[in-house]
Amino acid sequence: MAAAAQDGGNLANVHHILLVLSGKGGVGKSTIATQIALALRLAGKKVGILDVDLCGPSIPRMLNAMNKEVHQCDGGWVPVYVDQEKTISLMSIGFLLEKPDDAVVWRGPKKNAMINQFVNDVAWGELDFLIVDTPPGTSDEHISTVNALQPYNPMGAVLVTTPQAVAVGDVRRELTFCKKVGLPVVGIVENMSGFVCPTCSECTNIFSKGGGEELARHSGVPFLGCVPLDPQLTLSMEYGKDFLREFPQSPAYPALTSIARFILDKASESS
Ligand SMILES: Nc1ncnc2c1ncn2[C@@H]1O[C@H](COP(=O)(O)OP(=O)(O)OP(=O)(O)O)[C@@H](O)[C@H]1O
Ligand code: SF4
């Protein structure tokens, strides 16, 4: 569904908005959000990333944009362009901190005001997709983010889990959250789903397997696929490398590009 603000605004030319949610921390939500953005870019799309994970903004590091600065223009904040071609733009609280390791210790109202500013005051220009990376769990910040985005008809949420039952249980709560706030669920991604040994290609299911897929089946939402653990992906995120361009032979590559293909198909259905 195309974003359509009643009164124009900074998101009026953003065609599709996608939120990435996870029930618990550390399951790879920011990694999946970043890789979805890069995979959509690989498919020729112009993509923005809005990092509203106020307490743990990790995307500037993942995109090697740590030392870049956000500037102001008449329309609001100019996002950071990650590449020379300006096909990936990023806005993150990380750019507004004095030092990258500074902590954001704010009470709810201040966080909510910042989220509203992030949603309304970034001059994105024309984008095919805006990917919104949220904090883990379901908090006031999620409600503020969804409320602020609601006038722009977000396409929905991608939920990220790891395969084990404890993480899957938390995603169940995310599904309830989406239902309560009227946010469509695009699908569930099972991340860290098996480790393919680079030496003998044997797959070991370190965190068990299949929990995300089973939950998707039970809940009647699409399953977007299993992304295996790949040490090259960890390192790429650590050093801001363009993983999909540098490691097309990785076992995670087909999984990530197929998630992007699903999103592209879904977006074209609703356009
Ligand atoms: N499929 C994967 N293969 C290898 N490493 C991964 C994979 N997914 C995530 N990681 C690594 O796991 C760590 C946690 O990932 P990430 O920061 O994306 O999690 P998160 O859910 O966004 O965490 P939080 O929101 O709690 O900060 C990172 O070091 C990341 O590079
Ligand atoms: S999976 Fe195969 S190559 Fe990898 S550590 Fe085990 S035995 Fe060795």
Question: Can you walk through the features of this model?
Answer:
The chain contains nine helices and eleven strands. The chain has 271 residues and is of the alpha/beta class. The protein has one domain: Rossmann fold (3-Layer(aba) Sandwich), CATH 3.40.50.300. The longest helix is centred in the C-terminal third of the chain and has 19 residues, at 252-270. The structure holds adenosine-5'-triphosphate (ATP) and iron/sulfur cluster (SF4). Its cofactor is [4Fe-4S] cluster. Keywords: 4Fe-4S, ATP-binding, Cytoplasm, Iron, Iron-sulfur, Metal-binding, Nucleotide-binding.
Describe the secondary-structure layout:
Elements lengths: L13 E9 L6 H14 L4 E5 L7 H4 L8 E3 L2 E3 L1 E2 L6 E5 L15 H13 L6 E7 L6 H10 L6 E6 L3 H17 L3 E12 L6 E2 L6 H9 L3 E7 L1 H9 L3 H4 L5 H19 L1
Parallel strand pairs: 1-7, 1-8, 2-6, 2-7, 8-9, 9-11
Antiparallel strand pairs: 3-4, 5-6, 9-10
Adenosine-5'-triphosphate binds next to helix 1, strand 9, strand 11 and helix 7.
SSE-based structural type: alpha/beta
Q: Report the average pLDDT across residues.
A: 89
Instruction: State the CATH superfamily name.
Output: P-loop containing nucleotide triphosphate hydrolases
Indicate the proportion of strand residues.
Answer: 15-25%
Specify the overall morphology.
Answer: globular
Tell me the span between the first and last alpha carbons.
5 Å
- Any idea of the CATH class? Alpha Beta
Biggest β-sheet description: 9 strands, mixed
Number of domains: 1
Which H/E pattern describes the elements? Answer: EHEHEEEEHEHEHEEHEHHH
Percent helix, as a range, is 25-40%
What's the gyration radius in Å?
17 Å
Name given to the CATH architecture? 3-Layer(aba) Sandwich
The DSSP helix count reads 9
Quantity of strands, as a count: 11
CATH fold group? Rossmann fold
Low-confidence runs = 1-6
Bound molecules: adenosine-5'-triphosphate, iron/sulfur cluster
Binding site for [4Fe-4S] cluster: 197, 200
Keywords: 4Fe-4S, ATP-binding, Cytoplasm, Iron, Iron-sulfur, Metal-binding, Nucleotide-binding
Family: Belongs to the Mrp/NBP35 ATP-binding proteins family. NUBP2/CFD1 subfamily.
Subunit structure: Heterotetramer of 2 NUBP1 and 2 NUBP2 chains. Interacts with KIFC1. Interacts with NUBP1.
